[in-house]
Amino acid sequence: MKRLGLLALLVTMPGLVLAVDVDGQVAWSQRIEMSTPVSGVVDEVLVNVGDRVEKNDVLLRLQPHRFKSALSSSTAAKKDALYKLKEAEREWDRSQELYERTVLADRDLQLAENDLVAAKAVYAKAEAHYNSTKLDMAESVMRAPFAAVVLERHAQPGQSVVTRLQTVPLVTLAATTHYHATGSVSASDANQLASGQAVAVTVNGQRYNGILSSVGFEPVKDTGSYPVIVRFTTGGSLLRAGQAATLHLP
């Protein structure tokens, strides 16, 4: 059998004869540098490098005082705008009734309608501002978007985050739900492969089930070989990017 490096994928499709061992390495399926879309001062950081987190776990919080104040103000403004809108609706209904009884002039009816339109606009603006401040409050808390391991932590309590100037990575995560195994094959071997094939990946003697995610159409620079990527799961076992693994291809 032909051997190409450090990563082994074992094709598990029935009836196929394993003919090629491909060496490569483990890579992250997702790696993300996280920041906050709102500015503020870091209140607390709840993770450190190497920590494992689940989806929606809190990673970091900004100081909440400014966000709570803005939300309280926008809530009051929305309530006031709603009260005035209800008043304008009642006045519009009353004006229509008087107009139908021919005891209200056209101009007065038009004024009542203008007041109603203006009240609706004020309420819509107040509601939009309320929704914006509510979203800011939620986004002042950074949560994990998926199960992951913490690769880097750049944030410290008391640190100012000014997003309007430049997005600064605060925490870097790598997904642990899936991994990639990367390697390369010759053009003739690449022609025999197809995305979606069932493949097993062996890392440190442990075998994991996966699928062939992609087979490249452009060669790796200066090698003449073509990249292959296998997506696999470990059932919770934590791997490191760059670890050797072995692929067995048909």
Nutshell version of this structure?
It is built from 3 helices and 17 strands. It is α+β, with helices and mostly antiparallel strands and 250 residues long. The strands form 3 sheets. Strands 4-13-16-15-14-17 form a 6-stranded antiparallel beta barrel.
Write a structural description.
- The protein is α+β, with helices and mostly antiparallel strands and 250 residues long.
- The chain folds into three domains: 2-29 and 178-249, Efflux pump adaptor protein, beta barrel domain (Elongation Factor Tu (Ef-tu), domain 3), CATH 2.40.30; 35-61 and 142-174, Beta Barrel (OB fold (Dihydrolipoamide Acetyltransferase, E2P)), CATH 2.40.50; 65-139, Helix Hairpins, CATH 1.10.287.
- Helix content is 30%, strand content 34%.
- The chain has three helices and 17 strands.
- It has helices at 65-100, 106-139, 187-190, and strands at 2-4, 8-11, 20-22, 24-28, 31-34, 40-45, 52-53, 58-62, 141-143, 148-153, 160-161, 171-175, 179-185, 198-203, 206-215, 226-232, 244-249.
- It has a six-stranded antiparallel β-barrel with strand order 4-13-16-15-14-17. The protein has a four-stranded antiparallel β-sheet with strand order 5-12-10-7, with no helix packed on it.
- A hairpin with a 2-residue loop joins strand 14 (198-203) and strand 15.
- Helix 1 (65-100) runs antiparallel to helix 2.
- It is elongated.
- Residues 1-18 have low confidence and may be disordered.
